[in-house]
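Format notes (please read before filing issues)

Several people have asked whether sequences and structure tokens are stored in separate files. They are not. Every record keeps both together, in the order shown below: the sequence lines, then the token lines. Line labels are part of the format and must not be stripped during preprocessing.
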Amino acid sequence: MSLTAPPAPAPRASYAAVLSSPYVARLLGGTLTGRLPNGMAPVAILLWTSAAGGGIAFGGPLSALYSLASALSQPVKGRLMDGYGQTAVHLPAALLNSFLLLTLPAADPQSRPALATAIVAAAGLTAPPLEAGLRALWPSLLPPSPLRHAALALDTGSQGLVYIVGPLLVAVLTSVHSASLALAAAAALGMAGTAVVACAPPSRRWHLAQSARAAGPMRRQLRSPGLVLLLLSLTGTGFSIGALNVWAVTLAERHGQDLLSGIVPAAFATGSLIGGLVYGRRTWCGTAVGQLLAAGAAFLAGWTPLLALHEPPSLTVAVAVPGAFLTVVVGCAYATTDDLAPRGRTSEAYAWLILSIGVGQAAGTALSGRLAGHPLASASLPALGAAFALTVLLTARPSLACGGRARPRGRHRRPRGSRRS
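Then the structure lines:
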């Protein structure tokens, strides 16, 4: 009989086990609530501009400006979190963002377009970096294990709820009252969710010690071919999302069904949520890079039916197919970025990934707004973005494979200076 005690069983990789871990449900729920303005504001701005007489031709770029400004400021806010902690960044950003969204209806897009543009840009710049913050917290919340793999998949997949609840809520509030009410609701929800996260002990205590050695490698890694090409490919993924949002609004106007502007993005995000839940239930064979390429190809194939379908019910069902692979693309991109990122700069690394998606989303929104009068061209833009993403990923495959070979799948480095709560 062996005198050695048997090893403790590894935590079950179930979502119930993830959510029962300390602070996980609170942080995930607060992040989702605080990020609702990301799903609500672009649609609400587009509908508000159109209702106020500005039209989709001005509302599309204005909506894109919010997403673009939010994305461009992500690396700066990530660096600030690395240096000063999360609460010091989250709370001031949320206060400013909510205030600006509340004041936007006072700016007439017809008589004062410059003022409306300035408010939208400032609101986007001050959106709190909750997604990157939650990603940086996972190493201090859960040990490297199947449990963390499930948590990361749940995190990535559940972010789709922002784009299910957000556009639907905007569509309902606009139909019942006005787009101004939708903007006010976005401001209130963003502030409430951010406060839940920023006041949680793991977020308040989280801090990464800065060092010259940590800063130097980050600059070199961000210029590495693999990471640069990965980020470039994600702009194509974001382009597809942005083009879809405006295409949904034009579809609603063409068929005279206002709720389609929220239902179509919600169907896409529902597919994303389901795909993420399925992906996180098991450990898949192959490397993260191989999974990323396979998911990118499936994401592209999922967009092609939009070119042949014309009726709203069939189109609504069809957009759930590429949505199902979006979470896998983003989740594998996070894993690859984690492999390439140096210690001590995790928030900034994740922020650059979010920036890439956001820039692409803004470009897709702007171009789709300009082509709103051409149904076939508007419907083809999401597939165009997915094709660009896959082409860049295939080009980057050798560099990505070399970068991700250092660590086995499912393991993540714990940043220096992070503390378990």
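For reference, the curators noted about this record: The two ends are 38 Å apart (CA to CA). The CA atoms of residues 160 and 167 lie 11 Å apart.
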